Design the sequence.
């Protein structure tokens, strides 16, 4: 065996060791995502996609990266799972349409009044019952409606400013756009009502699921779902300038 062959063999062995050692990370990320998704999503499909992400991470990782392998692999695994969800979009177009309609009314009311639009105002303008309105908020939480920057084509988004971004694969222009968007999103979140800000922080920064947030706030899981959905709709309304 020549030197090149020996080097490639060592690389393969190192990659195999990384995959075996970090395989539990795939399961952990899959079940964490499942806490935010409806029962129709198959956790097995997520784990299969995540294993592919882990394999790619093991093959491409170099020790000169600033991040540890676990951090790098976590981004790749989660990205692969999100790609799988995007590829098999289970969200009906009607759901996207209703959320867009609610967000547009929220935008109109807030522009007219200069204050946070409340549920009663939105329901009255749309002629919605409380049950219908809360269903839209629930759909906003469970569906992939976090892409505040993509065209409203009725198909949903292909990404989210709330997703983890692998900055190693962004060009200078894309990196600048992502940083600018992240700053704009952070600013928009800071303008949300306090309870909505808290739910967003617990959900995306502390990575608690809806049930855990309910325990923190002393409310039901369904109420947390409504608050989260209201925050997403409000963000969609306030980030309208970022959509294509």
Sequence:
């Amino acid at each position: 065996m020549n030197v090149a062959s020996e080097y490639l063999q060592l690389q393969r062995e190192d990659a195999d060791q990384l995959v075996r050692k970090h395989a539990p990370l795939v399961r952990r990320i899959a079940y964490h995502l499942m806490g935010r998704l409806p029962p129709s999503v198959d956790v097995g499909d997520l784990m299969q996609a995540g294993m592919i992400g882990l394999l790619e991470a093991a093959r491409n990782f170099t020790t000169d990266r600033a991040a540890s392998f676990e951090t790098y692999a976590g981004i790749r695994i989660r990205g692969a799972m999100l790609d799988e969800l995007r590829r098999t979009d289970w969200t009906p177009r009607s759901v996207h349409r209703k959320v867009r309609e609610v967000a547009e009314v929220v935008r109109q009311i807030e522009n007219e009044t200069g204050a946070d639009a409340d549920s009663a105002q939105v329901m009255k303008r749309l002629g919605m019952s409380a049950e219908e309105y809360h269903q839209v908020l629930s759909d906003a939480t469970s569906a992939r409606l976090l892409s505040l920057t993509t065209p409203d084509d009725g198909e949903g988004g292909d990404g989210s400013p709330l997703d983890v971004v692998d900055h190693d694969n962004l060009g200078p222009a894309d990196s600048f756009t992502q940083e600018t968007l992240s700053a704009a999103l952070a600013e928009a979140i800071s303008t949300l009502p306090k309870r909505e800000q808290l739910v967003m922080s617990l959900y995306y920064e502390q990575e608690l699921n809806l049930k855990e947030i309910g325990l923190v706030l002393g409310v039901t899981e369904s109420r947390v779902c409504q608050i989260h959905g209201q925050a997403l709709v409000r963000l969609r309304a306030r980030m309208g300038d970022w959509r294509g």
Observations:
- DSSP finds ten helices and no strands in the chain.
